[in-house]
Design goal:
Elements: E1 2-4, H1 12-21, E2 23-28, H2 32-55, H3 71-76, H4 81-86, H5 94-100, H6 103-113, E3 117-119, E4 124-128, E5 137-140, E6 155-161, E7 172-174, E8 187-188, E9 195-196, E10 208-210, E11 217-220, E12 226-228, E13 237-246, E14 286-289, H7 301-310
Parallel strand pairs: 1-2
Antiparallel strand pairs: 2-11, 3-13, 3-14, 4-13, 5-12, 6-11, 6-13, 7-10, 7-12, 8-9
Helix pairs in contact: 2-5, 5-7
């Protein structure tokens, strides 16, 4: 299901395909100029962390002679400190903000989520490193990590590779056409800080490999089962996954609420009128596009960095008994791709 999204947003046929299949591959969405600022952010962070480890005697060399695709793989043969320092939503530099708010990407998200658009709190950086413990990710649904209240709503994932991806270096696999059912039972994956769907509860259906080139995107419904397996190459499979939702859903974004938009109610999921503060309250949402309240849209990288630094996490409902002690507020406890 490969499509070009060079036009503004998605076509009616693409929207219909996403609704039917639960996913959509776009072969062409972003160009190198769109992606390079985020890559620059990552490379600066790797350089800083590698230099510090060399000075501390914890890394034999910085491996600066290697390119973006290979440098972290070489470093990670000696230490996992750099990789773990980059994982998930830790970085929030200007290149990341530019990618999250890229108008081409927002046009696509608006096609599916509506024009009152939230950039969801759960954005992730994914360095899938060869022979790394966190490399293979079991089958899961993103909704398993969110508040149950949001199960039947769309929290869109836009999975953005920063290099070409295929089955060899660990692209995503999906199970299509099961996303309108209930969320499957999940459990903690053995030895990893991920949730997984036990094999006995894995929805039936074909397992579809989704290679995506650099500049493309894989769009996922939050109830579409997906996983990614071992990277069998010598290079890092770099990707980011970004999430968007309609402003009517629960969100902790600092904005004026309109009629019909969710506002928090009750204290626990056992309260029949319970509405959570956000679909994933450990992290900070922000209004990224709005025709009715343009003055409340977050517009600068400085605002984004300040939001990330100042946000006070609220734990997400633990419906699977999966959160380890002290980890309820840990942004790292989110599905890997």
């Amino acid at each position: 299901m490969n499509n070009d999204a060079s036009q503004r947003g998605l076509t009616a046929e693409q929207i219909e395909a996403f609704d039917h299949e639960g996913y959509l591959v776009l072969d062409a969405l972003l160009d190198d100029d769109d992606l390079q600022p985020a890559i620059d952010d990552i490379e600066r962070e790797i350089e800083m962390r590698a230099t510090e480890l060399v000075r501390a005697g914890k890394l034999s060399q910085s491996y600066a002679e290697h390119d973006f695709a290979h440098r972290l793989a070489h470093i990670s043969r000696e230490t996992s400190d750099v990789a773990l320092g980059l994982w998930n939503g830790v970085l929030h530099g200007p290149g990341f903000f530019a990618l999250i708010t890229n108008p081409k990407l927002l046009d696509v998200a608006q096609s599916l989520c509506g024009e009152e658009l939230i950039a969801s709190s759960v954005y992730r950086l994914r360095p899938k490193i060869p022979h790394f413990n966190y490399g293979a990710v079991p089958w899961h649904q993103d909704s398993a990590y969110f508040e149950p209240y949001c199960d039947q709503a769309l929290v869109l994932t836009a999975w953005i590779p920063l290099v070409d991806t295929d089955a060899e270096n660990g692209c995503l696999w999906v199970i299509p056409r099961v996303h309108k059912a209930e969320v499957a039972p999940h459990r903690p994956a053995e030895g990893k800080a991920y949730l997984e769907i036990p094999e006995t509860h894995l929805p039936p259906g074909e397992h579809v490999c989704c290679p995506v080139p650099k500049g493309g995107a894989l769009l996922l419904n939050n109830r579409t089962p997906h996983g990614s397996f071992d990277n069998r190459t010598d290079a890092v499979r770099w990707s980011m996954d970004l999430r968007y939702q309609n402003a009517a859903l629960p969100t902790n974004a600092a904005m004026t609420r309109r009629d019909g938009e969710s506002t928090p109610r009750g204290k626990t999921i056992d309260d029949p009128e319970f509405v959570p503060v956000a679909c994933h309250p450990p992290e900070a949402d922000f209004l990224v596009r709005s025709p009715t309240r343009p003055d409340e849209v977050l517009r600068t990288a400085e605002q984004f960095a300040r939001l990330r630094a100042d946000h006070v996490p609220t734990p997400v409902t633990d419906r699977w008994g999966a959160w380890w002690e002290g980890e309820a507020n840990n942004p790292g406890r989110q599905a890997a791709k």
